[in-house]
């Protein structure tokens, strides 16, 4: 009673929930959208799968893939478990709404430095760091979560980053996709 609540939409729809000011940061971390905040249209991650029509069945046409693969050239060796985790992290990040965010910032600030770090521990989590000369963003990618990607931290000076997160082992394409730099042979 008497507390000023902030309204958030947990699913990005028309349903709103009152959140206390102390919990507002947590709601943002979980990807909830504040009432009145500007939003950009997002493409749903799961597109509706349609059955093959009679013409496709007769002609034997193959369905098209919705998204290009991460590696533009074939990798001619077996990837280690760490490299597989980095590729999977990049794939999950590229399917999130944050890909558009960093892609838009990249259009203004130029090409960033990108790092993907797989964290040790029981939970399968990784950190994607995207840094320009005047700002940086860190995203936590949790494979076993309902919201697998969330904004962890951000700042203005890349010197604030811990050394473990500045091993620049990926790059950003023009469309905002994060692509790991993995040796092909």
By secondary-structure content and strand pairing, the structural class works out as alpha+beta
Q: Report the mean per-residue pLDDT as an integer.
A: 80
- H/I helix tally: 4
> Kindly, what is the distance between the CA atoms of the first and last residues, rounded to a whole number of angstroms?
64 Å
Q: DSSP strand (E) fraction?
A: 15-25%
Largest sheet: 4 strands, antiparallel
Shape: globular
Oligomer: single chain
User: Which regions contain 5 or more consecutive residues with pLDDT less than 50?
Assistant: 41-49
* Total domains: 2
Strands, count: 9
Q: Order of strands across the biggest sheet?
A: 4-5-6-7
Level of helix content?
A: 10-25%
Instruction: Note the run of SSEs as H and E.
Output: EEHEHHHEEEEEE
Task: Specify Rg, calculated over alpha carbons.
Answer: 19 Å
Which labels suit this protein?
4-stranded antiparallel β-sheet; single chain; 185 residues; 21% helix
List the helices and strands and how they pair.
Layout: E1 6-9, E2 17-19, H1 24-29, E3 33-34, H2 54-59, H3 81-94, H4 98-109, E4 113-118, E5 125-131, E6 136-142, E7 149-155, E8 170-172, E9 178-180
Antiparallel strand pairs: 1-2, 1-3, 4-5, 5-6, 6-7, 8-9
Describe the structure in brief.
21% of the residues lie in helices and 23% in strands.
Question: What does this protein structure show overall?
Answer:
This protein has 185 residues and is α+β, with helices and mostly antiparallel strands. It has two domains: 1-39, no CATH class; 81-180, no CATH class. It contains four helices and nine strands, in the order E-E-H-E-H-H-H-E-E-E-E-E-E. The chain has helices at 24-29, 54-59, 81-94, 98-109, and strands spanning 6-9, 17-19, 33-34, 113-118, 125-131, 136-142, 149-155, 170-172, 178-180. The strands form three sheets. The protein has a four-stranded antiparallel β-sheet, covered by helices on one side. A three-stranded antiparallel β-sheet has the order 2-1-3. Strands 8-9 form a two-stranded antiparallel ribbon. Strand 5 and strand 6 (136-142) form a beta hairpin. The longest helix is centred in the middle third of the chain and has 14 residues, at 81-94. The N and C termini lie far apart (64 Å). The relative contact order is 0.15. The model is unreliable at 41-49 (pLDDT under 50).
